[in-house]
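Lecture notes, continued. The same structure-token format from the folding unit now serves as the input rather than the output. Read the line below as a description of shape only.
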């Protein structure tokens, strides 16, 4: 056997992209709640790093402005008596400024590379967790179906309220997925009645998934348009959306029940016509017959 030749290094193994800890945990968790917690942790970490990068970029710009101001002040301080000294001073200041600008530009490029790398890594991690969540939901639905109990309340000729019994957090996630194929952005979205203004009802949207803090309270018409424009994740809060050929409905969590409302212009109406109530009940019945939900219609 020949001795290994000296001076030759073994080839380095190709580096694999690191998986964020939250992604690793999500792939090994068995419950929807724990997977959602890992997803929330990853999104929070992404926000924190984006804020840190923005602060670092702001610091660079402030430092650059300080250098320019310093050079300007130096050029105006104690004008020299001799012209030769003035020329030498200007040359030195120009050289100092150019050197500082080169260093600043190099720092900007390095920060841009770091921001792009981190953004790509988080995007891959978030996509991986979303895929894991979707698979977890579909596996759950193969053996467990949302249980709905629908109670119609007549209010006179051709007028009805439709109530459904309150659902658990898992059932809310499963129902939204069955109805839309979308992921809710949070596990406890359906029971979340928090509000940033005690004088107003909870906002219907979370400031996530492209929804800004000032966009969480669209009217009913805008809400329908916003949801139609979102691809995979719905940041809905306190209700389950339902798009039917006859209109846009929502199942709004209201105390011990969910109340069905229909969009009418910029608002929602909870008193349904007989046709509207039958349309919702008929759609749910069809889902039951297809084996997607369990449904009881109370008399």
């Amino acid at each position: 056997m020949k001795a290994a030749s000296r001076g030759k290094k073994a080839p380095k193994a190709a580096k694999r992209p690191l998986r964020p800890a939250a992604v690793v945990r999500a792939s090994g968790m068995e419950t929807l709640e724990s997977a959602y917690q890992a997803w929330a942790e990853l999104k929070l970490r992404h926000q924190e790093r984006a804020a840190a990068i923005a602060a670092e970029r702001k610091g660079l710009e402030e430092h650059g402005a300080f250098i320019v101001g310093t050079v300007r002040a130096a050029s105006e301080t104690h004008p020299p008596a001799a012209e030769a000294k003035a020329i030498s001073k200007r040359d030195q200041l120009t050289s100092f400024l150019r050197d500082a600008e080169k260093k600043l530009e190099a720092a900007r490029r390095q920060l841009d590379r770091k921001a792009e790398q981190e953004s790509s890594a988080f995007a891959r991690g978030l996509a991986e967790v979303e895929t894991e969540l979707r698979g977890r939901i579909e596996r759950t639905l193969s053996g467990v179906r949302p249980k709905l109990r629908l109670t119609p309340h007549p209010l006179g000729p051709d007028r009805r309220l439709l109530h459904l019994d309150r659902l658990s957090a898992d059932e809310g996630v499963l129902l939204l997925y069955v109805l839309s194929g979308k992921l809710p952005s949070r596990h406890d979205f359906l029971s979340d009645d928090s509000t940033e203004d005690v004088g107003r009802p909870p906002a219907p949207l979370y400031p996530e998934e492209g929804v800004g803090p000032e966009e969480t309270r669209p009217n009913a018409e805008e809400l329908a348009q916003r949801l139609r424009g979102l691809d995979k994740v719905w940041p809905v809060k306190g209700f389950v959306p339902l798009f039917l050929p006859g209109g846009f409905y929502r199942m709004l969590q209201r105390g011990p029940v969910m109340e069905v409302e229909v969009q009418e212009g910029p608002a929602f109406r909870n008193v349904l016509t007989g046709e509207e109530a039958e349309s919702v009940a008929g759609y749910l019945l069809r889902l039951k017959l297809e084996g997607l939900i369990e449904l009881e219609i109370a008399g």
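Point for the exam: The CA atoms of residues 157 and 274 lie 8 Å apart.
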